[in-house]
Amino acid sequence: MCQTDDQRRIERYIHPLVRDLAWLIDAPDLLAMPWPGRPSREELGLAGSALIDYLDAQHRAPQALEQRIGDSVNGRLGHYHERLWQHLLDTAPGTRLIAHNCRIERDKRTLGELDLIYQRRDDGRLVHLEVAIKFYLGLASGPGDADSQTRWIGPGCVDSLAVKREHLHYHQLPLLDRISDAATLTQLLGSTTLAEDALARGIDQRLAIPGALFYPLIAAPAVDAAALVAPREATADHLRGRWLHYRQWAEYKRSLDGDTRGAWLSKPHWMAPPHDDQLLPLAALDHHIQRHFADYASPLPVMLQTPSGWQRLFIVGDDWPRRIPLPPSTPLATQ
User: One Pfam family of this protein, by short name (predicted)?
Assistant: First the structure.
């Protein structure tokens, strides 16, 4: 089976938290927005062999990672993702975590929270990092143009890529601009020295938005192929999967190699591929999928290990989507 360097690196580890941490370090962002993207391995101090040394150390002694994650493993993907970042920035050789979940208030009203503030060890600069992990399913037809972000919606049909992009760009990242006085910065950063540095040199900003975009498995014959293009601002290397209705599963299963194995994913472990001992023969996986849709209509994330590599799938009920989220009002998302 063909594997990438990232996949081979993940396979070194059994502990699920370490596997997800390894995935997070290299996972590409979904979007290339006007803000700088995720911190690089070089910035984290994890270039070259330093990455394996770091992950090996985490696997040998995972107690600090386990303590940081705490009860966020109980199905809360967003909280779990944030805590992985907290641990990474606090323990990577090139960074130091300064603060997280920083509440911004004005006139006794909460405006929002800054996810993370860290300091680079090479030049001492402070960085505000917003993080979000998202898995969106693309609609072959729908609101907006073929590449509109409004056509990419969450499996629960509650939000869309367009809505999330607008919230990050117009609300979350500009929150930092609401802070300009030394007293507030000192309280936020926990240090007069850091506050003075922030006033003198400013605070850099970054956005990390890993995840995956799931393309429809089969387009309706009447739908133009251009309807399946990536959404606007999508990075060239974003992680891709396929989504299909349950009624399509039997035919798709027959197209798979007989040696295919797989597993369904449970939150919050939607990141790294499952370990080898979690993989089921295709027949056993098919049995679980049939039982799931006999009792539930909720979308089911699945990963398949085929001779040609890993496949990410989202299998949804035959009536999906039951609704499509309203588009935001910003011109970029709705064009």
Answer: DUF1853
Residues 307 and 310: their CA atoms lie apart, in Å, by 8
Closest CA to 102 of 35, 24, 173, 189: 189
Domain count, the chain: 1
Check whether 227 has a pLDDT greater than 80.
no
Contact between 83 and 70 under an 8 Å Cβ cutoff? The reply is yes
CA gap 119, 128 in Å, rounded: 9
Domain with 196, as residue range(s), is: 5-334
Q: For residue 136, list its beta bridge partners.
A: 213
The answer to whether the beta carbons of residues 189 and 98 sit under 8 Å apart is yes
- Alpha carbon distance 320, 175 (integer Å): 36
Write the pLDDT tens digit of every residue in 286-318: 999 999 999 998 999 999 999 989 999 999 999
Check residue 334 and give its pLDDT: 43
Owner of token pair 């080898």: 276
CB atoms within 10 A of CB 63: 8
Q: Could you report the per-residue pLDDT of 265-288, keeping only the tens digit for each?
A: 999 999 999 999 999 999 999 999
> Which tokens sit at 323?
């609704």
Contact criterion met (CB below 8 Å) for 248 and 218: yes
CA 111 to chain centre: 24
Q: In the predicted model, what is the mean pLDDT of residues 151-160?
A: 96
Does 224 have pLDDT greater than 60? no
Measured distance between the N- and C-terminal CA atoms of the chain, rounded to whole angstroms: 41
Burial string for 196-228 (b: 16+ CB within 10 Å, else e) reads ebbeeeebebbbbbbbbbbbbbeeeeeeeeebe
Tokens of 155: 């499996």
DSSP state of 40: P
**Of 318, 322, 283, which Cα lies nearest the Cα of 300?**
318
Q: Which residues sit opposite 22 in a β-bridge?
A: none
